[in-house]
Amino acid sequence: MVVITNKHVVNEAQNITVTFSNGDGYPATVIGSDAYSDLAVLSVDAPLEEFQPLSITSSSTLQVGDPVVAIGSPFGLGGTMTTGIVSQLGRTIQDSVAGNFPIANIIQTSAAINPGNSGGPLLNYKGEVIGITTAIIQNSNGLGFAIPSNTILRELKSLITTGSYDQHPWIGISGTDMTYAIAQSLGVNVTYGWLITQITDGGAAAQAGLLGGNEQVQVNDAWVMIGGDIIVAVDGIRIINGDTFMSYLEEHTMPHQTISVTIVRNHQILDIPVVLKQRPSAS
Hints:
By secondary structure, the protein is mainly beta. β18 (258-265) and β19 form a beta hairpin. The chain has five helices and 20 strands. Strands 5-6-7-10-9-8 form a six-stranded antiparallel β-barrel. Strands 12, 13, 16, 17, 18 and 19 form a six-stranded antiparallel β-sheet that branches.
């Protein structure tokens, strides 16, 4: 038996304990973690009869509007249950535990989540785990986020057997979401996609010949780096924005896999093969 939680919950923690709903507490040890998905797996020195395992089901079938339940200990109030819906899928969030890399393919939910909910299960109405609550936007109302169960299922064996997970793909680019205003500024008729602003030296995108921005212009009240390629599809799947792009890579690709990136460059549509690399290890 293992306990799955968030890495940021136990990061740099000492004397970790797990307390069951009946009040019994036991010492625990981190046996595996992954900063890029904010997951950690604990081994608990407790008898088997203490564990009441939950079933983990695929998050692939989730749809916006599906009802969900979050269970956790917000502000130390143990055993708290809240309800809501799946507000959106395929979000990308920044978390200090992952450094400069985004955590992609995240579930957004309206279920009330507060400090102390992190690491608790997000359930469907069958009581099956569809995610692990992990983050909120400070001072927001009904903006919570959860790591999807597909990420858990994909990584769990490696976290338990090797203590880590190193199969996150890396393309080595930064970008900004396309808008109508940016399209007008560029003189293009594509208002969706992800505009590449920067290419990382030695990354997969650089080796494939993708181009980053070379000029800053002001669009409305913001400065935008233009001149780079606009990603509009990957493997034939329409890319609406950066969230869509990063979430597709996380859910459907692996390091060393070749993907076909469709771009707009100089008013031409091009398909560029890109061999993904392995994301550098988290510090």
